[in-house]
Amino acid sequence: MYEYRCETRLVLAALVLLGCTSGMSAADGQTAKAKDQSINDQLVEVGRDPKELSVPPLDHVVYPESRAEWIGNPMQERENVATFVVVSGPSETRDESLRELKLMQRAALSTFIENLVGTFGSSGFYQISDKRFDEELTLRRYSGEVTVGGTTLYEDAVEIRITESERDAMLDAWKNTEVTQRMATLGVVAAGGFLTLVTSSTMFGIVIRRRERKFQPVPESAKKVV
């Protein structure tokens, strides 16, 4: 009888242990499945639309394939002919890009003239109209779009060419300016000398007249005592 009870208890204990083990295994299996499902969901979410999840930085610049290659050319000078490129910064509108390009090409030409004559801040002696700038000094022109930080903007560029005859005209204009400045300087000096001479002559005349009055003899009529 005692042995029968012991065997019964052992069987019950084994059944309980087996049930617990099965429950733990089932729970672990469900947990593992839940983790796998979560990972799969994340992978699907990432692979669903990579463009929506990736945002380009604000300074990321993308140029179109149709962008002219000559825009990246450095300044060149061959046989007294100089060429250099001026590019506007990315602008929100085409008009804004063209206005900026106009200012930049004027500034670039002024810098070229100043380096040519060796005097800075004095390029105003040589003036070029917008029409002549476009027809005679502009070699090539480009207008296109550029993407900056995912935003489409506009840019414009020109290649400027300074021929030998144009360079000679700049130098001749500078020589004429120098001559005019020297003549103006001489005129100021001459005018100053003339004023000094007139002033000195006037003062000298006053002194002479005073001395003449001082040494002038007294008339006889003035000597008589009334």
Q: Could you please describe the fold and organization of this structure?
A:
There is one protein chain. The chain has 226 residues and is an alpha+beta fold. The protein has six helices and five strands; from the N terminus they run ααβββααββαα. The protein has a five-stranded antiparallel β-sheet.
Rg on CA atoms, Å: 48 Å
Main sheet attributes: strand count, strand direction, barrel closure:
5 strands, antiparallel
Question: What proportion of the residues is helical, as a percent range?
Answer: 55-70%
Quickly count the helices.
6
SSE order in H/E notation? HHEEEHHEEHH
Number of E-type strands: 5
Mean pLDDT figure: 75
Question: How would the global form be characterised?
Answer: elongated
Q: Biggest sheet, strands in spatial order?
A: 1-4-5-3-2
Distance between the termini: 190 Å
Extract low-pLDDT stretches.
Answer: 1-28
Structural class: alpha+beta
Strand content: 15-25%
List keywords for this structure.
62% helix; 15% strand; 6 helices; 5-stranded antiparallel beta sheet; alpha+beta; 226 residues; single chain; elongated; disordered N terminus; 5 strands
Write a short abstract of this structure:
It contains 6 helices and 5 strands.
Question: Which secondary structure elements does this structure contain, and how are they paired or packed?
Answer:
Layout: H1 2-48, H2 50-53, E1 61-62, E2 76-78, E3 81-87, H3 94-117, H4 130-137, E4 138-148, E5 151-162, H5 164-215, H6 220-223
Antiparallel strand pairs: 1-4, 2-3, 3-5, 4-5
